[in-house]
Each structure stands twice: as C-alpha cells, then as structure tokens.
Design brief:
Shape: globular
Radius of gyration: 18 Å
CATH topology of the largest domain: Pathogenesis-related Protein p14a
CATH class of the largest domain: Alpha Beta
Number of domains: 2
CATH architecture of the largest domain: 3-Layer(aba) Sandwich
Order of helices and strands: EHHEHHEHHEEEEEEEEEE
Structural class: alpha+beta
Number of strands: 13
Strand order of the largest sheet: 1-3-5-4-2
Helix content: 25-40%
Largest sheet: 5 strands, mixed
Distance between the termini: 41 Å
C-alpha cells in the first residue's frame, strides 16, 4: 500500500536543534578504548531508505538525494503516529498533515511525501513506490535534492524536498561508511552553480574550479569520522558539508 502528496511549509529550525537532530537521526558510533570511534554497526531508517532510493535513482541516471535531519524527523514522527494509532494516511485523524509536520520539523521548503505499509525492509518499500506511478514520479524527480525517511514496524514514510540556495554534497551516494580515502562526490547545483571548491577542514580549500556535478576527492588521513566542505558560487558563496566514516 502506498500514497503520496505534495505540500509546503515555511519555518527555520534553530541551528542548535538542527545539530541535535543530526546526531539523533544518524547511525550510532561505538567508541572504544582508543581515541578513534569504531565504525557504525546499525543504519537508521533514513539511511536504509536512502541507500535504496539512491540506488534506484542511479539506475535511472539521476543524482543522489542527501539525508536532511529535519525531513527525517517529520517522516519518523508520522510513521510512529500511524503505527501507534493504527491508521494509514497522510493526515492524522485530527487533520494534522504533512505541511504541519514539515513546519514543526523546521524544514523551510515544499515537501513531497510517499507512505507505504506492509513491507519488511527498505528495498521492498522502495520497490513498491517505483511500481506506483505517483510515487515513482516523486522518487525519480530530477528537481529534488534532499530526503528523510522514517520507519515504525511495517509503516514507512519518505519526505523529499529542495531548499532554495542549498546545494547538498553527497559522498558515495550517502553511504555512512567508506573504506578508501578516495571517494566519489556528487555536488548538487547543476545549471545554478558556476564555481566550486572543496576542503577537509573548512579552512584550507582547493582552488576554485568550474562546476561539475561529479568528481573524486581524497579524505583526510586516518580512520574515523570525516567531513567534506563544499563551497558553491551561484552569485553568492554557499557552504555545505557532508560526513562519512572512514573505516580502518
């Protein structure tokens, strides 16, 4: 079973809360006796769905979507509510719908939502969406750049959007773990961004380069969490980041 809808919201979440949500909605890092955290051992629902969604988009020649914590929060809250109260709809029984959830999560742009029920894993849920014309249109939309997903039992929710002036960087199709310092990047901003530069520390940047959506990059040395900074020039300099765990 599945359903989809397009809605809009306008509210900005404070930076401190955004940071807290990012920690809450990404895979857990297990810290050992040393100073380097161990690799993540479990994926959040957002990452499970993200890998399947981006695999499908890649097969159709589309850019990967980036997990956005506020979209993941909106999706998870709806999945939890449907499971707890036993309904399947975009709107709660009181009429609380996607636009309200998006506003409460702080996502300041239009969102598109897919829901599914009765699937055991993320791949099955994504497969069902691909087999439904309306959900497929959302999943394979070239205009989207971000997503967040939630799961509660057999309830699945996917929320997608594209904020104005935000061009996500996606490392290795948003995989949480990589095993090589050399990684593939996707830089959103096609037909909007003219120049780009990259950094591993947010201070020492590469020279400005003409925009191209795909390129390779070398992470900093040593195992552990890594951050790549992406500055895009579209008339203004805009800074985006992505994180990944470099395994030993």
């Amino acid at each position: 079973m599945a359903d989809n809808i397009a809605v809009a919201a306008e509210l900005i979440l404070p930076m401190a809360l955004r940071t807290l949500l990012a920690w809450a909605l990404t895979p857990t890092l297990l810290v050992g006796a040393g100073t380097t955290p161990a690799a993540p051992v479990a994926l959040s629902p957002a990452h499970e769905v993200a890998l399947s969604v981006n695999q499908a988009r890649r097969e159709f020649g589309l850019p990967p979507l980036k997990i956005e914590p506020r979209l993941a929060l909106a999706a998870q809250s709806h999945a939890d509510d449907m499971a707890a109260r036993g309904y399947f709809d975009h709107c709660a029984p009181e009429g609380h719908g996607p636009s309200e959830r998006a506003a409460e999560s702080g996502y300041p742009a239009a969102i598109w939502e897919n829901c599914a029920l009765g699937h055991e894993d993320a791949r099955d849920a994504v497969k069902a969406w691909l087999e439904s014309e309306g959900h497929r249109a959302t999943l394979l939309s070239p205009s989207l750049r971000e997503m967040g997903a939630g799961r509660s039992g057999r309830y699945w929710v996917l929320d997608c959007g594209a904020r104005s002036g935000v061009y996500p960087i996606v490392i290795e199709n948003d995989s949480p773990i990589v095993r090589s310092r050399r990684v593939a990047l996707y830089l959103h901003g096609q037909n909007r961004v003219n120049w780009v530069r990259l950094s591993n520390d947010g201070k020492n940047y590469s020279p400005w380069m003409p925009y191209q959506p795909e390129m390779e990059w070398e992470l900093s040395e040593g195992a552990g969490p890594k951050t790549v900074y992406y500055q895009a020039y579209d008339g203004k300099i805009r800074t985006m980041v992505d994180e990944v765990y470099l395994s030993r």
